[in-house]
Amino acid sequence: MKKTLAVLMSVLMLLVAVMPTAFASMDESLLYGDTVITSDKEYRVVGSVIERNIILNNAEGSEQRKCFVLEIDLNNPDLSIMATYKNAEVTTDWERTTVRSQARAAELKYGVNVVGAINGGFYSTETGEPSGLLIMNGKLGHASNGSPYFAILNDGTAVLREGNVSTADVKEAVAGKIWLVKNGKNVAPANKLNPRTAVGIKADGTVVFFVVDGRQDPDSVGMDYPEVAACMIALGCETALELDGGGSSTMLAKREASDLNCSNSPSYGYERTVATSLLVVTSAQPSGVFDHVTFSESLYLCSPMESVTVSAVGVDANGFSAKIPAGGSLQLANDSLGKLNGNKFVSNGEIGYVDVNYVLNGEVVATSVIRVTHSADNIFESLYNRIMQFFYNIINTIKLLIDKFDEKILSKM
């Protein structure tokens, strides 16, 4: 028994040493109304940043919402969060640029590696001028308008504050608009369904970036403020603030051994230009020294009698590509659903799930899952869904224009 316990303790210590920071799953019991989780995929960005793609729906299955989450553990000394605008410089030459463009500008200016990003605060759609507080690297970029703000302090900790709190100790800041969560309580006012962007902070200081797609019924209907607040609470946030949403809602993430890609589907069909962004950056550099293996997907979908390519890559301790040592191979847990030809899984027609492992020197070092299902790659169903989505997008755009017209009429009355 003592020997067994000693072995188990050694294994646990090894796992703690090599596994990324453990982030708790979304607590379904804390979601709004009858909302349920239908899918929750997790991707490693770097050891202390996790991307999660979560699909929610109501009990009837008629209100799907696609949510995108970045959880950032700022205890990692290589990680920080930057507020930025345009070319990462203080200016009054206001201009809107994409989150991706702002990320590239920050990388060039500061020599950092941007591994995640979301759009920031509200702004003038005519000039691109931020409508609230903006502080970049300790320099005031735009004065406060009294709105609450998200900030990184000089000591590296993250806070959410009321708009009248001094910024003397602030290094980075972006203004929000609506308080969603205070002291763990949902304080959000009711409003309409829309794409949303939010930022929250957990009790342990972990920062949560949140984006939900909207105006893309039935693919993703969006959320109102109380629903976003409920999601932030379910993710463990003690405080949360609404940032600019709608067509501006954008989340970028750089998964391990990958490029910086847009995780969500912006409602205009492309990455809209915005005023400000919040960037997750790491000062860590590629070492080239192999640390672990990762799969490109946590779940691969395959139709019966079809095939799917499975991709496993080597990664260093900082999330950059590294060559996998010789002696490794992809292996199925069993042959009940098909076989592997190199890195291609070929289905035998049976429906179900099977683990695909990367085995190195006789040990399983990484695992993904292959699901064989009739709905995975049905060309006719895919075409039908695309056509239906096209018409839904037209309808949703007309609704949006009507809403904006109504708002302008009401503002003049």
The overall pLDDT, averaged over residues, is 89
Radius of gyration: 23 Å
Shape: globular
How do the strands line up in the largest sheet? 1-2-3-14-13-15-11-12
Total count of domains: 3
Query: In percent terms, what proportion of residues is strand?
Result: 35-45%
DSSP E strands, number: 27
Structural class: alpha+beta
Report the end-to-end length measured between terminal Cα atoms.
80 Å
> What percent of residues adopt helix (DSSP H or I)?
10-25%
Assembly state (oligomeric)? single chain
Count of separate DSSP helical elements = 4
Q: Main sheet?
A: 8 strands, antiparallel
Parts with pLDDT < 50 across at least 5 consecutive residues: 1-22
Tell me what you see in this structure.
With 413 residues, the protein is α+β, with helices and mostly antiparallel strands. The protein folds into three domains: 22-282, no CATH class; 292-372, Sandwich (Immunoglobulin-like); 383-413. The protein has helices spanning 2-18, 99-110, 225-234, 379-411, and strands at residues 36-46, 49-57, 65-72, 79-85, 113-119, 134-136, 139-142, 149-153, 158-161, 170-175, 178-182, 185-186, 196-202, 207-212, 237-242, 251-254, 260-262, 276-282, 292-295, 299-302, 307-309, 312-315, 328-332, 338-341, 344-347, 352-360, 363-372. The chain has an eight-stranded antiparallel β-sheet, with helices on one face. A five-stranded antiparallel β-sheet has the order 4-18-5-16-17, with helices on one face. It starts with a helix and ends with a helix. Mean pLDDT is 89; it is low at 1-22.
